[in-house]
Design goal:
Cytidine Deaminase, domain 2; 276 residues; Ubiquitin-like (UB roll); 2 domains; globular; 8 helices; alpha/beta
């Protein structure tokens, strides 16, 4: 399997040698980054920079991770459209998300309160109190092990098709408690990759609570919050956490494992004892 045309493009580059060998001309696969305008119930909600693949998964996951929808059934429609730029600067995609009537009012309210747009995954957040609003407590638990975490890290590389082609994207994976990979999604943005994964799981009726999420990213608090809202009991990241990520994980009862490497990992939170 190879990356799709919507994931990467080949560019001619020159490899500059520092060791005395001759420079070389070669083709390099580069991940596509494009503007994705998200409309919710007909209202412009956010413009994200993302890899334009698995867009239906992205739309569904975005709605669930942002709290616009509580269940996949709350999303009534998803349309994707390519639009050309009028100034010949390329173009972008529009994702139109429809919500059930009981969820539409909340989306309208958030859209009216938006004061800025950000690729951090916190679109519509107006003030500090909203950023730090309580998260729903994690109620599901799994039983896993250090061997399972190691297995997941080892298996993930084989599922990172776009990553193998470009070395420039993040991956988000749901892993079974024994460490085997269940689903993977990739994107130039770590938040986008996680949104796509959440959407893919919802579309395939796979419960995030059935395993743990593995991210090839820095552990920021936004990723912790998206994982908690998805109902997954454990998050593993290959890089370090922020202080707020730790505090939010501990407050919600999320098992948090960071700096996961081939030979070690750092357990930051594991109050319920998910890891044997």
């Amino acid at each position: 399997m190879t990356a799709t045309p919507f994931q990467s493009r080949d560019f001619s580059v020159r490899k500059l040698e520092f060791s005395g060998r001759e420079d070389r001309e070669l083709l390099r696969s580069i991940p596509i980054e494009a503007p994705i305008a998200i409309e919710v119930c007909g209202i412009g909600y956010a413009v994200m920079m993302a890899t334009p693949s698995d867009l239906r998964d992205y739309a569904l996951g975005f709605a669930l991770a942002e709290g616009l929808a509580d269940r996949p059934e709350d999303v009534t429609d998803i349309d994707t459209h390519w639009v050309e730029s009028s100034d010949r600067a390329g173009g972008g995609w529009i994702l139109r998300i429809g919500l059930s009537p009981e969820k539409a009012d909340g989306a309208f309210a958030r859209a009216r309160k938006r004061v800025s747009e950000s690729s951090c995954g916190l679109c519509g957040v107006e003030n500090i109190e909203q950023v730090l609003r309580p998260l729903p407590p994690i109620t599901s638990r799994i039983v896993t092990s250090r061997a399972a975490i190691s297995r997941a890290l080892s298996e993930l590389k084989g599922h990172q098709l776009l990553g193998q082609a470009t070395s420039a994207v993040h991956a988000a994976a749901l892993c079974a408690p024994d460490g085997h990979i269940v689903r993977v999604r990739e994107d130039v943005g770590r938040h986008n990759a996680l949104d796509k994964l959440i959407g893919a799981l919802a579309a395939d009726d796979i419960a995030p609570s059935s395993g743990f999420i593995l991210l090839t990213a820095r552990c920021s608090y936004e990723l912790v919050e998206k994982t908690v809202r998805a109902g997954c009991p454990m998050l593993v990241t290959i890089s370090a956490p922020t202080s707020l990520a730790i505090e939010r994980a501990a407050g919600a009862g999320l098992t948090l494992v960071t700096l996961a490497r081939a030979d070690s990992a750092l357990i930051v939170c594991d109050a319920p004892g998910n890891i044997a």
